Amino acid sequence: DAGVIQSPRHEVTEMGQEVTLRCKPISGHDYLFWYRQTMMRGLELLIYFNNNVPIDDSGMPEDRFSAKMPNASFSTLKIQPSEPRDSAVYFCASSSDSQSSYEQYFGPGTRLTVT
Amino acid sequence: GQSLEQPSEVTAVEGAIVQINCTYQTSGFYGLSWYQQHDGGAPTFLSYNALDGLEETGRFSSFLSRSDSYGYLLLQELQMKDSASYFCALFSGGYNKLIFGAGTRLAVHP
């Protein structure tokens, strides 16, 4: 298996622009997680899905952030409009089922810079 | 709420043994996970403790004591490639999510 795939790997955009991050989880995994990592705040869970349904979005910072999972093999995290404080590495991770969600497989991340 | 504390940095010599501690506060959880992250890389799963005691996986071992709200990761026969950040994370099974600590940066020197 190719593992969790994320695109783009790097994104540089100007404040106010829309940013869309993409993720393909490992085939057969029921759970998909979006994280944000910064030096100040560490690794934060933004939202997670179970069988394409959003279960917990309590970590989404504000209405500018939205996430979708239209099917089992694709998810997006959108920021509109983007702000400099959104600069971070965004990781997508997946796990096979609820019993083993302590073991999550992370994608390589998208490094977002908002100027 | 839930919170975890880890030392921010640990330094050790190649070939030595190092222990990275993790204390936590929680009203309930299923277990404690450990992840490794190299600079510029993604977190990768190392170990999980659902029960009290020691779990061994090659050179790495992880320990959990629920009565002490404490766990640790033990790395033996340190190698230069072990230089990385190590995160403990509480697994809230009922919510199927991980809450990560701030991470411990391990530097291994020759």
Structural write-up:
The complex is a heterodimer of chains A (115) and B (110). Chain A is mainly beta and 115 residues long. Chain A is 0% helix and 54% strand. The termini of chain A are far apart. The N and C termini of chain B lie far apart (41 Å). Chain B contains no helices and 11 strands. Chains A and B meet through strand 5, strand 9 and strand 10 of A and strand 5, strand 9 and strand 10 of B.
Sequence-ordered SSE layout with sheet pairings:
The complex is a heterodimer of chains A (115) and B (110).
Chain A: E1 5-7, E2 10-13, E3 19-24, E4 31-38, E5 42-50, E6 53-56, E7 65-71, E8 74-79, E9 88-95, E10 105-106, E11 110-114
Parallel strand pairs in A: 2-11
Antiparallel strand pairs in A: 1-3, 3-8, 4-5, 4-9, 5-6, 7-8, 9-10, 9-11
Chain B: E1 3-5, E2 9-13, E3 18-25, E4 31-37, E5 44-49, E6 53-57, E7 60-65, E8 70-75, E9 84-92, E10 97-100, E11 104-109
Parallel strand pairs in B: 2-11
Antiparallel strand pairs in B: 1-3, 3-8, 4-5, 4-9, 6-7, 7-8, 9-10, 9-11
In short:
Chain A is mainly β. Chain A is 0% helix and 54% strand.
